[in-house]
Structures are given as C-alpha cells and as structure tokens.
Amino acid sequence: MEQLAERAWRPHQACEDYLSEFRHCRSFRNHFHHYYTYGTAPSCQQWKEDYHNCRKWESHKLAEAKDALQKSERRRLEEQKNFTPVWKLRQAPPGDWHRPLD
Amino acid sequence: MQLYKDRHFSCEDCDGTVSGGFDAATSQIVLCQNNIHQQAHMNRVVTHELIHAFDHCRAHVDWFNNFRHLACSEIRAANLSGDCSFTNEVSRFNFGLKAHHQQCVRDRAVRSILAVRKVSQEEAQKIVDEVFDSCFKDHAPFGRIPHGNKDAKFAYREYMNRDRYYANL
C-alpha cells in the first residue's frame, strides 16, 4: 500500500516544463538579462539534471531520481527565501481593502 | 487579493512628472493620466503600483513612518516592474551593462522616496543601501525577476502549479 503511494508521487511540473526552463535559461536573451542584472552568466545545468531525473522517474520509478528532484526543488525554494524580510507578513489582507470610498 | 478597477484604480491629473502612486489610506492605485502617453509606459506604471499594492496586502507595511519599509517596496517595484530594463535605461541615456540593473534599481528607489518624503538625498541613499540586499532578493509573487514575456509566462506557470508543488515536496 505504501509502495503504491510512493509510486503515485509525481514531480511538481511536467518534465517538458523542466526542459523548457533549461532552454530558456540557455537562450541569448536570458544570458543578456542575467549579465545586465548580476554581471555574471546564468547557471543552467540544474534544470537539465532535473529534466533527466524527471524522465527517469516517469520511465523507471527510480527512487534516487525522485530524491534528487525533490532535493533540487527544495533548494530552489530555499534560495527564493534567502533573505531577512524587512517587514512582518500579514495573516489576512488589510480590513479596509474593500472599504467603500466616500 | 482581489482588485476591482472601479474601486482600486483612479485616473487623475498629477503635478510634475509623476506617473502614478499607491495610496495606502484609500487602498487605491493612482494613475497620472496627464503624464502617461504610451501603452508600454502605462503597463510599467500599473505593474509598479501593483507591486506596492501587493506588499500592502501581504505585509504590515508602515508606509508613513517606516522609511525602511517604503524603501523596500520601492526597490522591489523598480526591480520587478521593468522600470530598469536595458531599453528603458538607454532611453534615459543611462548607458550601463554589467550589473547595471542593480544600480538603476537603487537610483530609482532613491528618486521615488525623495518624491514622496521630505528627506535629504544622503538619507534616502543610506536607507536604500541598508535594505537593498534583502529587498532586491525578494521576488514575490513572481519567484524570479520578469525581464520579458517568457519570464512572466514561466512565473505564471509556476504559480498555477503551486498546489501540486507543495504537495510533492
């Protein structure tokens, strides 16, 4: 039963999406924008690896592929949060957001 | 966060060369109809102000008393709205390439602060420098800096996948 649940896991996006991210990352346009923003070339290798791991999981259900993919996605998510916020986040939108104007 | 164009947008005539603003007191985005003449400019201003609205809705931003909060939102708006794209900078005769985007974001954030608060250039610069590293990295809600339509499309795709995302990590 547990094995069934394991095999039912799916990557967070279609494998083709990883490939399209890789191609987009490698495009001239993206290189230009990355240099213009950071002064360096982008590193795109991770997208390619994620694509291969995604395909390995879909074709052969390899546990290592799934683990590698999950690890990569978690790392990506962490990188997005890699800063100390200047403000405190709300639990709900401001009460007066929809308040009628006079 | 739901926006209604009749409630949350207001087209007005403005002083000087200001293009728009976000009024936290009334929860409204103000668009300066006398200073916006091109569609591309309009798109940019709306995106810029929407980022302020987004920050207002998702965080306790003290617009009036906390200059660090104000600076942070201005950094994010300049960073994520396309204000500092290469073409826009060239059209302002600011020719820079290597990491110029960051310089532009700093400069425009300072300008935005000076436009709405009575502080000196040095003070505004100091506050922007203090919060820059943190706020420049905050790419919410895009997850990346959208430099063009493809970036925006991919960011949207990630957003639509988000439930599947969190369930599978």
Characterise this structure.
The complex is a heterodimer of chains A (102) and B (169). By secondary structure, chain A is mostly helical. Chain A is built from 5 helices and no strands. Chain A has a domain at 15-78. Chain A has helices spanning 2-8, 15-26, 28-38, 45-60, 63-80. Chain A is extended and about 65 Å long. Chain A starts with a helix and ends in a 22-residue tail after the last helix. Chain B has one domain (9-142). Chain B has a 3-stranded mixed β-sheet with strand order 1-3-2. In chain B, a hairpin with a 4-residue loop joins β2 and β3 (28-32). Chain B is globular, with a radius of gyration of 16 Å. The model of chain B has no long low-confidence stretch (mean pLDDT 93). Classes of the chains: A mainly alpha (102), B mainly alpha (169). The interface between A and B is large, with 40 and 46 residues.
Strand-helix topology:
The complex is a heterodimer of chains A (102) and B (169).
Chain A: H1 2-8, H2 15-26, H3 28-38, H4 45-60, H5 63-80
Helix pairs in contact in A: 2-4, 4-5
Chain B: H1 5-8, E1 9-12, E2 20-23, E3 28-32, H2 39-58, H3 67-80, H4 86-91, H5 100-116, H6 121-137, H7 149-160, H8 162-167
Helix pairs in contact in B: 2-3, 3-5, 3-6, 5-6
